[in-house]
Amino acid sequence: MGELEGHIIEWFVSGVGLAVVSLIGFVWRISHKVSELEKRMQGHTELRNSDMSQVHKDIDYVISKVEKNEDKMYSIVRNPTK
Predict the structure, then answer these.
(1) Of 13, 47, 69, 79, which shows the fewest CB atoms inside 10 Å?
(2) HEC per residue, the chain
(3) CA 75, CA 69: separation in Å to the nearest integer?
(4) Average pLDDT, stretch 49-71?
(5) Is the pLDDT of residue 82 over 90?
(6) How far is Cα 29 from Cα 34, in angstroms, rounded to an integer?
(7) Distance CA 43, CA 38 (A)
(8) Which residues contact 1 (CB under 8 A, 6 or more apart)?
(9) Which of 24, 3, 27 is nearest to 11 (CA)?
(10) What is the pLDDT of residues 12-56, one digit of tens each?
(11) What's the predicted TM-score (pTM) here?
């Protein structure tokens, strides 16, 4: 009976060791995927912010041109030249 108990304990210890190593591998793989996704999200956020900044600059440019043309039109209406 002692020999059988030794084999059972040996199998049990091997199984526990394999489970621990598998768990460590699983946690490492998940954490690696999470860090990659965080980097990707950060890149998308930076791109979106730069795009929004450019859109705001473009809107400000268009508004300034419209205001400039409005001033010209108003001055033409106020002081018509013949």
Answers:
(1) 79
(2) CHHHHHHHHHHHHHHHHHHHHHHHHHHHHHHHHHHHHHHHHHHHHHHHHHHHHHHHHHHHHHHHHHHHHHHHHHHHHHCCCC
(3) 10
(4) 90
(5) no
(6) 9
(7) 9
(8) none
(9) 3
(10) 999 999 999 999 999 999 999 999 999 999 999 999 999 999 999
(11) 0.53
Task: Please tell me the number of Cα atoms within 13 Å of 32 on its side-chain side.
Answer: 6
Statement: residue 4 has pLDDT above 60: yes
- CA–CA separation, 33 vs 21, rounded Å? 19
59: its two tokens? 């809107």
